[in-house]
Amino acid sequence: xxxxxxxxRSLQSSVIHRKNPHFNNTxxxxxxxxxxxxxxxxxxxxxxxSSPPPPTPPPLSATPSxxxxxxxxxxxxxxxxxxxxxxxxxxxxxxxxxxxxxxLFRYAPLPDDLHTVVNWSGTHEVQTRVFLQxxxxxxxEKIVKDANEKKQKIRPVGSGLSPNGIGLARGGxxxxxxxDKVLEVDKEKKTVRVQAGIRxxxxxxxxxxxxxxxxxFASIREQQIGGIVQVGAHGTGAKLPPIDEQxxxxxxxxxxxxxxxxxxxxNPELFYLARCGLGAFGVVAEVTLQCVERQELVEHxxxxxxxxxxxxxxxxxxxxxxxxYLYIPYTDTVVVVTCNPVSKWxxxxxxxxxxxxxxxxxxxxxxxxxxLEKYKRQPNENDSKLSDLTFTELRDKLLSIDPLNKDHVKKxxxxxxxxxxxxxxxxxxxxxxxxxxxxxGQQWVSETCFPAGTLSKPNMKDLKFIxxxxxxxxxxxxxxxSPIEQRxxxxxxxxxxxxxxxxxxxxxxxxxxxxxxxxxxxxQRKQITEEFFHYxxxxxxxxxxxxxxxxxxxxxxx
Length: 558
Description:
Elements: H1 2-16, H2 24-31, H3 37-47, H4 64-90, E1 115-118, E2 125-128, E3 131-132, H5 137-149, E4 155-157, E5 173-175, E6 182-186, E7 191-195, H6 200-207, E8 212-213, H7 225-230, E9 247-254, E10 258-263, H8 268-274, E11 283-290, E12 292-293, E13 296-304, H9 306-319, E14 322-327, E15 334-341, H10 357-374, H11 391-401, H12 406-421, E16 425-430, H13 431-434, E17 443-454, H14 461-476, E18 484-490, E19 506-516, H15 522-544, E20 550-551
Parallel strand pairs: 3-5, 4-5
Antiparallel strand pairs: 1-2, 6-7, 7-11, 8-12, 9-10, 9-11, 13-15, 13-16, 14-15, 14-18, 17-19, 17-20, 18-19
Helix pairs in contact: 1-4, 10-11, 10-12, 14-15
């Protein structure tokens, strides 16, 4: 707007003074003040002929040529812009000039030293020239020291499994994937000291021969130990704290103090702050973890409903080492999964399932075939055979057909409900095998943590929260897929943990809502993303303050 006004003024000026081009500057300077009016007239008379001065031109608004001149210059401007756009889109870009169509005049060919880092869900991407992977503590110390001296920011990044890409930074990243060794195992004390880049599954495999394992696990095993600790990740079990509570000491590489070791005894104030510190207090180089005896667990999966759950909730939390609920929107189905040590006296339960896996999957397969016919789709030739697909793979394929159609999603949820009813039963295995959970494909997730009373006296707000979320979904007709997952943990003394509390009796509920990204189509992914953030915004504005809920660090979105 300001630029248009300036162009208009300059055109007006050129029209007024076009008959005296040699004196334009003088006239503009002198005519800018009322006090120069008389000298200006005298100056004109001195350089003009003896004939009477020309009549004063009419006001600018009355000059017919003004508007035509303005239209001429605007036409030139429009022509110039059109030529620029045509040149931009017809210019032969090299293959590595990515994202050409995203924004005008923004992108150029990517330099060879530019690293593109994408998180697991494909929801966040960053390009940087600084992506460093030290192989030793000395190399890490040098990286941090150099960055500090150059006043450059650098961020620790793990396996990139967080849906929000918390570790991604354009300024620079340091990744410890090459620092993945087990440094020391104390079988008597059941402790293990490791480099922070080791993945959870690597660690579990390395220490199982010592008869020990981690106390609890998140849903997946590919996180680096440094990352899973720093974001306050958790498993499930109202008597078990988040994973950061398993840390008994840490080695931090800091910009100001170099490498320091902190624990409950050495600098406890910093220890409880940095233990779940998001990498803000330094790069975690080594971690010492308190482990437990490796044991077999019995997993029991059964289907219930919210009315029944309310009656048994306190007992389920107290009687089971691990417990979680999976809610299926637009149905009254609640899938309950408990895990407990195998009884030394009774042994594993003897149970014969009513349905085979193929029979359990049949309702989902039938819906997939029906949906292909309804939407007139043909199966992709490169796809696996229907009989080879797991339940989560089938769900992704179903959702990809029409992911934001509420009625279609509702049918998928109903088929999933039937799948779980046919999957009731028991499973026996080691804790590191049993406690995992197939989360499905790429996805958006928002998980909140809020207080749920104590073990002896649950406040039941955790179930009330779920009731309100389910009502919201139906009222707003949100195409919410399954599951809404609810887990519990004990408190953590880490000050930045969402489950932080000084009381050991407090318990916390963790609730995750989800939307999958089952397609690679950019337009469709954008639509799903917008719908998910609408869904998340509704839960945030209506429930978070009411329940004193905080979002999981690994799932916070700006």
